[in-house]
Amino acid sequence: MTELDIAEVVQRAGVPASTLRFYEEKGLIAASGRRGLRRQYDPAVLERLALIALGRTAGFSLDEIARMFAPDGQPRIDRQVLAAKAEELDRTIRELGVLRDSLRHAAACPAPSHMECPTFRRLLKATATGTAAAPRKRAPRSPQER
Amino acid sequence: MTELDIAEVVQRAGVPASTLRFYEEKGLIAASGRRGLRRQYDPAVLERLALIALGRTAGFSLDEIARMFAPDGQPRIDRQVLAAKAEELDRTIRELGVLRDSLRHAAACPAPSHMECPTFRRLLKATATGTAAAPRKRAPRSPQER
DNA sequence: GTGCCACTTCAAGTCGACTTGAGGTAAAGA
DNA sequence: TCTTTACCTCAAGTCGACTTGAAGTGGCAC
């Protein structure tokens, strides 16, 4: 039998069962069936969950993700939107690269005041002039449900 | 006079006044003084706000940001932590790069089912094996306060 | 067949990050 | 001087993304 019990999905995807139920309610995933009350999942749900996690990492809301991918995991909105999201993401990536470099510099530079360090200021300035930043939220909770 | 009125900061930083007050309450920024009731700011607050926005983009919470940078904008925690954050960020950046490529591929690939496309699956798999993703939140509201 | 216990539902609670609203105040123009 | 108006405070509300709690259920080991 190829179906996964919810407990197995929890274990393998590292996502709590409450989250799986929540995602189901939102239409982001679907159980392939039930064994009694227990949800059973197609193994493909693992890829789908990875896709959702990835989308969240990229700053998309659950609603946006639901809109981007049909329940079967296939991209469903038009290619223009997808391409636009890719561009948006590309800008974010470049900004994060600057921040990473800034952090590295701050960790390495012996100067006491980083705001006076030309390197640091130049890095900062490079992003301040960019598009308004899209905040990222904290990581999800631990896989245990209780 | 070199001080900026709050209205000016709102205008230049593209951040609503309510957010500035909120950040002040959280200890993330400070007004250099008041003109009557009105807050006045040192121009350096603009850089500090850029730094905060950048930190948010990178997925750090306001509390984390407050912990990373002293009120004067100087990094204050130890270099090890800074370097660790930079590494964490670097992993995230690589994952986002994969997502960007996946989106681009989805926008360009004429195949009807992307989950069956080897390119798409390979891209996805590359991130699924990585560290659990750190979700990003939606962009901030518009600069208008009402 | 009976008990355990991981699952179930559904409503309510939490958390971070702000926003909104009511009621107040002072700088600046008429 | 008087009014306007943009700021102020403080409490409460909102939103997304989940989590928690109470009460129920049914597969599986004994």
Automatic annotation (TrEMBL), chains A, B:
This is Helix-turn-helix domain-containing protein. Keywords: DNA-binding. It comes from the Bacteria. The keyword DNA-binding applies. The keyword DNA-binding applies. Residues 1-71 form the HTH merR-type domain.
